[in-house]
Protein backbone atom coordinates (compact mmCIF):
# COMPACT_ATOMS: atom_id res chain seq x y z
CA UNK A 1 0.00 0.00 0.00
CA UNK A 2 1.32 3.42 -0.99
CA UNK A 3 0.52 5.94 1.72
CA UNK A 4 0.50 9.72 1.50
CA UNK A 5 0.44 10.87 5.15
CA UNK A 6 -0.39 14.53 4.54
CA UNK A 7 -3.20 13.63 2.12
CA UNK A 8 -4.58 11.01 4.51
CA UNK A 9 -4.39 13.35 7.48
CA UNK A 10 -6.40 16.02 5.71
CA UNK A 11 -8.88 13.98 3.67
CA UNK A 12 -8.96 10.53 5.28
CA UNK A 13 -9.71 8.02 6.41
CA UNK A 14 -12.76 7.51 4.11
CA UNK A 15 -13.57 8.94 0.69
CA UNK A 16 -16.90 8.78 -1.12
CA UNK A 17 -16.83 8.39 -4.91
CA UNK A 18 -20.00 8.46 -6.99
CA UNK A 19 -20.03 7.12 -10.54
CA UNK A 20 -17.36 4.66 -9.41
CA UNK A 21 -18.31 1.74 -11.67
CA UNK A 22 -16.30 3.03 -14.64
CA UNK A 23 -14.61 6.00 -16.28
CA UNK A 24 -13.45 8.98 -14.26
CA UNK A 25 -15.18 7.83 -11.07
CA UNK A 26 -13.42 4.47 -11.14
CA UNK A 27 -10.08 6.17 -11.76
CA UNK A 28 -10.66 8.46 -8.76
CA UNK A 29 -11.47 5.45 -6.57
CA UNK A 30 -8.30 3.60 -7.57
CA UNK A 31 -6.14 6.72 -7.21
CA UNK A 32 -7.51 7.30 -3.70
CA UNK A 33 -6.92 3.67 -2.72
CA UNK A 34 -3.37 4.05 -3.97
CA UNK A 35 -3.02 6.88 -1.45
CA UNK A 36 -4.18 4.58 1.34
CA UNK A 37 -7.76 5.89 1.52
CA UNK A 38 -10.71 3.65 2.39
CA UNK A 39 -13.40 4.20 -0.25
CA UNK A 40 -17.19 4.11 -0.46
CA UNK A 41 -18.05 3.15 -4.05
CA UNK A 42 -21.39 4.42 -5.39
CA UNK A 43 -23.05 3.60 -8.72
CA UNK A 44 -26.07 1.72 -10.03
CA UNK A 45 -24.26 -1.49 -11.09
CA UNK A 46 -23.50 -3.56 -8.00
CA UNK A 47 -21.58 -6.28 -9.86
CA UNK A 48 -19.04 -3.82 -11.25
CA UNK A 49 -18.67 -2.14 -7.87
CA UNK A 50 -18.11 -5.45 -6.08
CA UNK A 51 -15.46 -6.44 -8.63
CA UNK A 52 -13.69 -3.10 -8.25
CA UNK A 53 -13.89 -3.28 -4.45
CA UNK A 54 -12.33 -6.74 -4.41
CA UNK A 55 -9.49 -5.60 -6.66
CA UNK A 56 -8.81 -2.51 -4.55
CA UNK A 57 -8.76 -4.54 -1.33
CA UNK A 58 -6.28 -7.01 -2.79
CA UNK A 59 -3.96 -4.49 -4.46
CA UNK A 60 -4.00 -1.66 -1.92
CA UNK A 61 -5.09 -3.26 1.38
CA UNK A 62 -7.86 -0.71 1.92
CA UNK A 63 -11.44 -1.04 3.11
CA UNK A 64 -14.21 -0.62 0.54
CA UNK A 65 -17.94 -0.26 0.98
CA UNK A 66 -20.30 -0.74 -1.99
CA UNK A 67 -23.53 1.22 -2.37
CA UNK A 68 -25.64 0.33 -5.42
CA UNK A 69 -27.91 3.34 -5.80
CA UNK A 70 -29.65 5.44 -8.42
CA UNK A 71 -28.80 9.00 -7.44
CA UNK A 72 -31.65 10.44 -9.49
CA UNK A 73 -34.02 9.14 -6.80
CA UNK A 74 -34.58 10.17 -3.19
CA UNK A 75 -34.17 6.50 -2.21
CA UNK A 76 -30.75 6.35 -3.84
CA UNK A 77 -29.51 9.45 -2.06
CA UNK A 78 -30.88 8.16 1.25
CA UNK A 79 -29.03 4.86 0.73
CA UNK A 80 -25.72 6.71 0.35
CA UNK A 81 -26.29 8.77 3.49
CA UNK A 82 -27.31 5.71 5.50
CA UNK A 83 -24.32 3.65 4.33
CA UNK A 84 -21.88 6.39 5.34
CA UNK A 85 -23.54 7.62 8.53
CA UNK A 86 -21.02 5.91 10.83
CA UNK A 87 -17.94 6.55 8.67
CA UNK A 88 -15.53 9.46 8.94
CA UNK A 89 -15.73 10.69 5.35
CA UNK A 90 -13.15 13.38 4.71
CA UNK A 91 -13.47 13.62 0.93
CA UNK A 92 -16.49 13.46 -1.39
CA UNK A 93 -15.97 13.07 -5.14
CA UNK A 94 -19.16 13.66 -7.14
CA UNK A 95 -18.21 12.01 -10.44
CA UNK A 96 -21.60 10.53 -11.37
CA UNK A 97 -23.14 12.13 -14.42
CA UNK A 98 -23.98 11.72 -18.07
CA UNK A 99 -24.48 13.88 -21.13
CA UNK A 100 -26.63 14.24 -24.19
CA UNK A 101 -25.67 15.53 -27.62
CA UNK A 102 -27.52 16.52 -30.75
CA UNK A 103 -30.33 19.00 -31.41
CA UNK A 104 -32.16 19.73 -28.16
CA UNK A 105 -35.61 19.26 -29.67
CA UNK A 106 -34.64 15.83 -31.02
CA UNK A 107 -33.86 14.57 -27.53
CA UNK A 108 -36.06 12.72 -25.06
CA UNK A 109 -37.44 14.98 -22.32
CA UNK A 110 -37.39 12.28 -19.61
CA UNK A 111 -33.73 11.61 -20.39
CA UNK A 112 -32.93 15.33 -20.17
CA UNK A 113 -34.72 15.61 -16.83
CA UNK A 114 -32.79 12.61 -15.50
CA UNK A 115 -29.60 14.36 -16.61
CA UNK A 116 -30.65 17.46 -14.72
CA UNK A 117 -31.41 15.49 -11.56
CA UNK A 118 -28.15 13.53 -11.63
CA UNK A 119 -25.72 16.23 -12.78
CA UNK A 120 -27.26 19.05 -10.72
CA UNK A 121 -29.78 17.75 -8.19
CA UNK A 122 -27.73 14.87 -6.79
CA UNK A 123 -24.55 16.95 -6.83
CA UNK A 124 -26.28 19.69 -4.83
CA UNK A 125 -27.73 17.26 -2.30
CA UNK A 126 -24.44 15.44 -1.73
CA UNK A 127 -22.52 18.72 -1.50
CA UNK A 128 -24.93 19.95 1.18
CA UNK A 129 -25.00 16.75 3.24
CA UNK A 130 -21.27 16.05 3.15
CA UNK A 131 -20.42 19.74 3.39
CA UNK A 132 -22.21 19.80 6.75
CA UNK A 133 -20.21 16.79 7.91
CA UNK A 134 -16.91 18.26 6.72
CA UNK A 135 -17.68 21.59 8.40
CA UNK A 136 -18.31 19.79 11.70
CA UNK A 137 -15.10 17.85 11.20
CA UNK A 138 -13.19 21.07 10.50
CA UNK A 139 -11.36 19.85 7.42
CA UNK A 140 -11.78 17.79 4.26
CA UNK A 141 -12.50 18.15 0.57
CA UNK A 142 -15.20 18.19 -2.08
CA UNK A 143 -14.53 17.49 -5.77
CA UNK A 144 -17.18 18.31 -8.36
CA UNK A 145 -16.97 17.25 -12.01
CA UNK A 146 -17.35 20.21 -14.31
CA UNK A 147 -16.31 20.22 -17.98
CA UNK A 148 -14.63 22.26 -20.70
CA UNK A 149 -18.17 22.96 -21.99
CA UNK A 150 -19.16 24.66 -18.71
CA UNK A 151 -17.78 28.08 -19.66
CA UNK A 152 -20.14 28.95 -22.53
CA UNK A 153 -23.30 27.77 -24.23
CA UNK A 154 -22.75 24.83 -26.56
CA UNK A 155 -25.15 24.25 -29.46
CA UNK A 156 -26.00 20.54 -29.90
CA UNK A 157 -25.06 19.94 -26.29
CA UNK A 158 -26.97 22.85 -24.81
CA UNK A 159 -28.49 21.11 -21.80
CA UNK A 160 -25.40 19.13 -20.83
CA UNK A 161 -23.27 22.29 -21.03
CA UNK A 162 -25.84 24.13 -18.91
CA UNK A 163 -25.72 21.41 -16.26
CA UNK A 164 -21.94 21.63 -16.11
CA UNK A 165 -22.09 25.43 -15.92
CA UNK A 166 -24.24 24.93 -12.82
CA UNK A 167 -21.66 22.58 -11.30
CA UNK A 168 -18.77 24.90 -12.15
CA UNK A 169 -20.50 27.91 -10.61
CA UNK A 170 -21.49 25.95 -7.51
CA UNK A 171 -17.91 24.80 -6.98
CA UNK A 172 -16.48 28.30 -7.48
CA UNK A 173 -18.84 29.75 -4.90
CA UNK A 174 -18.34 27.01 -2.33
CA UNK A 175 -14.57 27.13 -2.76
CA UNK A 176 -14.45 30.63 -1.31
CA UNK A 177 -17.39 30.20 1.06
CA UNK A 178 -15.95 27.11 2.73
CA UNK A 179 -12.28 28.08 2.77
CA UNK A 180 -12.55 29.39 6.33
CA UNK A 181 -14.14 26.11 7.42
CA UNK A 182 -11.10 24.08 6.38
CA UNK A 183 -12.85 22.51 3.37
CA UNK A 184 -11.07 22.42 0.01
CA UNK A 185 -13.48 22.56 -2.95
CA UNK A 186 -12.27 21.74 -6.45
CA UNK A 187 -14.00 21.95 -9.84
CA UNK A 188 -12.55 19.52 -12.38
CA UNK A 189 -13.03 20.69 -15.99
CA UNK A 190 -11.71 18.03 -18.37
CA UNK A 191 -11.97 18.07 -22.14
CA UNK A 192 -12.84 14.88 -24.07
CA UNK A 193 -12.11 11.80 -21.93
CA UNK A 194 -11.88 8.20 -23.09
CA UNK A 195 -14.81 6.70 -21.16
CA UNK A 196 -18.27 5.27 -21.86
CA UNK A 197 -19.56 8.86 -21.85
CA UNK A 198 -19.18 9.25 -25.62
CA UNK A 199 -21.26 6.22 -26.52
CA UNK A 200 -24.08 7.18 -24.15
CA UNK A 201 -24.01 10.75 -25.46
CA UNK A 202 -23.80 9.55 -29.09
CA UNK A 203 -20.60 11.54 -29.63
CA UNK A 204 -17.91 10.77 -32.15
CA UNK A 205 -14.77 11.90 -30.34
CA UNK A 206 -11.32 12.04 -31.83
CA UNK A 207 -8.44 12.49 -29.39
CA UNK A 208 -9.42 11.92 -25.78
CA UNK A 209 -7.64 12.02 -22.42
CA UNK A 210 -7.20 9.04 -20.12
CA UNK A 211 -9.50 9.07 -17.06
CA UNK A 212 -6.47 8.10 -14.95
CA UNK A 213 -4.78 11.37 -15.94
CA UNK A 214 -7.93 13.29 -14.97
CA UNK A 215 -8.05 11.67 -11.53
CA UNK A 216 -4.34 12.01 -10.72
CA UNK A 217 -4.02 15.63 -11.80
CA UNK A 218 -7.22 16.52 -9.97
CA UNK A 219 -6.07 15.00 -6.68
CA UNK A 220 -2.72 16.76 -7.02
CA UNK A 221 -4.59 20.05 -7.52
CA UNK A 222 -6.91 19.61 -4.55
CA UNK A 223 -6.28 22.38 -2.02
CA UNK A 224 -4.18 24.40 -4.46
CA UNK A 225 -6.90 26.27 -6.37
CA UNK A 226 -10.52 26.37 -7.34
CA UNK A 227 -10.49 24.78 -10.81
CA UNK A 228 -8.19 22.29 -12.48
CA UNK A 229 -8.11 21.51 -16.21
CA UNK A 230 -6.60 18.02 -16.29
CA UNK A 231 -4.72 16.82 -19.36
CA UNK A 232 -3.23 18.66 -22.32
CA UNK A 233 -6.48 18.67 -24.31
CA UNK A 234 -8.38 20.52 -21.60
CA UNK A 235 -5.58 23.03 -21.11
CA UNK A 236 -5.22 23.62 -24.86
CA UNK A 237 -8.94 24.09 -25.43
CA UNK A 238 -9.42 26.19 -22.31
CA UNK A 239 -6.53 28.58 -22.76
CA UNK A 240 -6.97 28.94 -26.52
CA UNK A 241 -10.56 30.09 -25.98
CA UNK A 242 -9.89 32.16 -22.85
CA UNK A 243 -9.47 35.48 -24.68
CA UNK A 244 -12.39 34.88 -27.04
CA UNK A 245 -15.69 36.66 -26.17
CA UNK A 246 -18.37 34.39 -24.78
CA UNK A 247 -20.49 34.61 -27.95
CA UNK A 248 -17.42 33.60 -29.95
CA UNK A 249 -16.71 30.62 -27.70
CA UNK A 250 -20.32 29.52 -28.13
CA UNK A 251 -19.98 29.63 -31.92
CA UNK A 252 -16.65 27.78 -31.89
CA UNK A 253 -17.90 25.08 -29.54
CA UNK A 254 -21.02 24.76 -31.69
CA UNK A 255 -18.85 24.01 -34.72
CA UNK A 256 -16.87 21.46 -32.74
CA UNK A 257 -20.03 19.77 -31.50
CA UNK A 258 -21.54 19.77 -34.99
CA UNK A 259 -18.56 17.74 -36.16
CA UNK A 260 -18.84 15.34 -33.23
CA UNK A 261 -22.56 14.72 -33.86
CA UNK A 262 -22.60 14.71 -37.67
CA UNK A 263 -22.88 10.90 -37.74
CA UNK A 264 -26.28 11.10 -35.98
CA UNK A 265 -27.84 12.45 -39.16
CA UNK A 266 -25.62 10.78 -41.75
TrEMBL record:
It comes from the Bacteria. Its main location: endoplasmic reticulum. The lineage of its organism: Bacteria, Pseudomonadati, Pseudomonadota, Gammaproteobacteria, Chromatiales. Residues 13-189 form the Ketoreductase domain. This is Short-chain dehydrogenase. Keywords: Oxidoreductase. It is found in: Endoplasmic reticulum. InterPro entries: KR_dom, NAD(P)-bd_dom_sf, Sc_DH/Rdtase_CS, SDR_fam, VLCFA-Steroid_DH. Coiled coil: none annotated. Belongs to the short-chain dehydrogenases/reductases (SDR) family. It comes from Thiocapsa imhoffii. GO terms for molecular function: oxidoreductase activity.
Amino acid sequence: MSTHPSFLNRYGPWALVTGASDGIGQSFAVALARRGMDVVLVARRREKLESLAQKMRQEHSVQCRVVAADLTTAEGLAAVLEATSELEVGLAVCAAGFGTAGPFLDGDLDNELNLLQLNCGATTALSWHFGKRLATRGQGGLILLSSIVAFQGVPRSAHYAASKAYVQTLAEGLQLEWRGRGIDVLAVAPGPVNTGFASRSQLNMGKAESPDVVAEQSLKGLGRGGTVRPGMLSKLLGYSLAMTPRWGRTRIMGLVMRGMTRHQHA
